[in-house]
Amino acid sequence: MAISRRRLLGYGATGAAAVLLGTGAASSSKPYRSHRLDGNPFSLGIASGDPAPDGFVLWTRLAPDPFAPDGFGGMPDAPVTVYYDVAHDERFTRIVRTGATVAVRALGHSVHPELYGLAPDRVYYYRFRTDNAVSETGRTRTTPAPGADKRALNFAFASCQYWNDGFYTAYDHMAAEDLDVVVHLGDYIYEDGLADNNRGVDVDRQFYGEAYDLAGYRLTYAAYKSERPLQRAHAQFPWIVTMDDHEVEDNWARDISVLDAEVDQFTAMFRRRRAAAFQALYEHQPLRAAQVPAGPGMRLHRRIAYGDLAEFTMLDTRQYRDDQACGDGQVTRCPDRFRTDRSLLGPQQRTWLIDGFSTSTAKWQVIGNQAPMGQTDLDPGPAVEVSTDAWDGYVGDRNEVLRQAKIRGVDNLVVITGDRHQNYASDLRTSFEDPDSPVVASEFVGTSITSGGDGSETSAADEMLLAANPNLKFVNGQRGYVRVHVEQDLWRTDFRVVPYVTRPGAPISTRASYVLEDRSTDGVTLS
């Protein structure tokens, strides 16, 4: 979509100004005068996230009119006190914590109270209240105490939920699972409009255009978060959330827009757009104060451990990366992708990741990653054709990370990945240029919730991928999510798929299951 420079400048300034207002007012618990809100102020649902041994963060955003064109959700200008209760039981007969926080206009009347002092590895129930409304009840769980003996962990991971491409039925099935946590690996929203969709519905004209300013991103989140299956999955489990590209713009890199106008003035405009997108991301997710954006910057790489069993290391593969090599596409000849001075993670984040290999005491080290780490050769012949937006475009970074995992003796390294709209199970080697190099990790790529439409169980393209990539053990193009069961000596991945998304009500099934054994060098194995 072509946009004028003047329009983009105007949008960017709105987002940046809002970000600079900060969060001081939102942390106060001072009660404000009552406001009787017309409509359901909890129309966008509730959520919890980033669990810790003694607590978690809770989230909601007051929006009695979530599609109000100004992006403020039908809320008054004034601050509103929001109360919350946390209990051992869903009927709230054994309340363990009651508190209050303040929803302010500068943050879209979102709240993110952080709870501390709770018992480790325990289920809790929570709800929000305003003067005239009570939210639904949410269920969440703390993590085990540091180093505690954790026998089993159940989690799911998902990504890529393009509203336009179908219904969120997969989340209804996810909400019925027995899970400790959900990991979302990015593309929670897509920045373009909702006019062309596979749902067969007409949308208001305010949703036609691409999001560039804070109001536009808020409206996009409102459309996505209004989906009841997504709300159910959020209310049932704590989530660990990161982003990929579409939370801002397709295939962006650091300060570089996909429009790739490398001039100072355009870079400044794109940074303002990023600031607006990051604020909207924070306003709509269960993120802690540590993730509050600072203008066009937002720290999303972090670690969350589950006792001695597993530790999640969440990456950010967008904010710090060098521009994609060789024009950002599918390439066969591209020497730049092998350069060791080019990075997907940025030097500081890469050092942080590698240092964690040595300091983690967990049996399973899990990297939450946005785009496939393993080589994905798209050419059935002798040439190697890859996408430079993924780790294939940053071979130096990939080789160093996997080499360090080998050097530092990481026995059980697993990478969980989104972005590709396909299910993969694959082995990761210290160098894909050397087929005899050791397998040091495994990667499971999860398909999309909806992106790409109905998909297919198998295709000629899938068969070609398997033939061209000996490290790939499984490829599937249906929609769904990935369910994982972890024990001290075994990891099991279940690829959960639905046969269609362009109409609601699809059933769920397990398309394939793969296992990893503790300290095994055999890679992924079909269950």
Features:
527 residues; alpha+beta; Purple Acid Phosphatase, chain A, domain 2; Immunoglobulin-like; 2 domains; eleven-stranded mixed β-sheet; seven-stranded mixed β-sheet; 8 helices; globular
Please give a structural write-up.
This protein has 527 residues and is of the alpha+beta class. The chain folds into 2 domains: 5-30 and 153-526, Alkaline phosphatase D (PhoD) (Purple Acid Phosphatase, chain A, domain 2, 4-Layer Sandwich), CATH 3.60.21; 31-142, Sandwich (Immunoglobulin-like). Helices cover 19% and strands 26% of the residues. It is built from 8 helices and 25 strands. Strands 1, 2, 5, 6, 10, 11, 12, 22, 23, 24 and 25 form an 11-stranded mixed beta sheet that branches. It has a 7-stranded mixed beta sheet with strand order 13-14-16-18-20-19-21. Strands 3, 4, 7, 8 and 9 form a 5-stranded antiparallel beta sheet that branches. Helix 1 crosses helix 5 (264-283). The chain is globular and about 70 Å long. The termini are far apart.
